[in-house]
Write a structure and sequence with these properties.
single chain; Aminopeptidase; 2 domains; 6 helices; 20 strands; about 20% helix
């Protein structure tokens, strides 16, 4: 599709609210919508905000949205939503009326999945009012599940919006902007060069323990706190860390076995590769969740960290 003019709206409104869970669909669909519009306008796209805040019933809300969309000669209508499934579902999916929108829908789904969300794919839905009644082709983005602990840990409205824009335009507005860097001390190897923004630090499939890590928080001015469980030592609390903090040990042949990170001013997520287990799920650095194990003598071998 040749996209020059777009209609974008947030789903539901505060009279006819959407799903709730760890966050509100009604609130966050507007946060994402606003950020998407701002980012597209910065790239010189013509964008109309077709969000309805006046409808008193679901039918009024839907009709108002379609009416606003049909007032403009747009190339694509985009509806921003969040899913819910009693805490059981997680991931992103994009709903479409026909294959006219397949490329844009798939690109958006893939871009959001790159943030760590499960890719549930593009699905045909010919029964949804907005998809059926807009003059221009329409897609509905179910960004993630608002009642999923996994998705809530990954979610950030600005990174979600950037992913949608990337899927639509091919432009990565986060490219070349390092948000976090980290290096590791590896058995028989020593210190690695620093890697950034979700890249793998350590080894996989080589049975080499990760003995220490250093995290450079300066790129995003992160307030990051760390605890680590070290083989034959136990838990050590490092408090607020900086780029000089060594989490773990060097020269003592002791593996990191478990980590607990806490970022208080940004949405940091991380995952670890553990011997005999493999990669953990992406987990929010909330100061409560731990990655790894205690009392099982299973070494950590690699780590990935990113700001979303």
């Amino acid at each position: 599709m040749n996209l020059k003019t777009l209609n974008i709206h947030a789903g539901h409104n505060f009279n006819v609210s959407g799903a709730d869970g760890y966050f509100s669909e009604t609130t966050e669909s507007r946060n994402v919508k606003n950020a998407v519009i701002s980012k597209l306008q910065s790239l010189d796209y013509k964008v109309y905000d077709c969000t309805d805040d006046s409808g008193k019933t679901q039918n009024e809300n839907l009709k108002n949205i379609v009416s606003k969309c049909n007032d403009h000669a747009a190339d694509l209508n985009i509806s921003i939503h969040f899913n819910a499934s009693n805490g059981q579902g997680h991931g992103v999916e994009v709903l479409q009326y026909s294959n006219k929108t397949k490329t844009a829908a798939q690109n958006i789904c893939n871009a959001i999945a790159q943030l760590g969300f499960k890719n549930r794919g593009v699905k045909d839905r010919t029964d949804l009012y907005v998809l059926k009644h807009t003059k221009a082709p329409a897609i509905l983005i179910e960004c993630c599940f608002c009642d999923s602990a996994i998705d809530a840990g990954l979610y950030n409205y600005d990174s979600m919006a950037a992913a949608i824009v990337k899927g639509l335009t091919g432009v990565d507005l986060t490219a070349n902007k390092t948000k976090i860097a980290y290096a590791g001390h590896i058995q028989d190897i020593g210190w690695t060069n620093a890697v950034t923004d979700g890249a793998t630090c350590g080894t996989v499939g080589k049975a080499k323990r990760l003995e220490a890590i250093q995290i450079d928080t300066r790129h995003s001015n992160l307030d990051l706190y760390a605890k680590a469980h070290i083989a034959n030592v136990g838990w050590k609390d490092y408090g607020k860390i900086n780029n000089n903090t060594v989490i773990g040990t060097v020269g003592q042949s002791k593996a990191l076995e478990c980590l607990c990170l806490n970022c208080t001013n940004a949405n940091v997520v991380y995952r670890v590769h553990q011997a005999n287990v493999g990669w953990s799920s992406w987990t929010k650095a909330d100061g409560v969740s731990t990655l790894g194990s205690v009392g099982q003598s299973l070494q950590l071998e690699a780590i990935e960290i990113k700001v979303i």
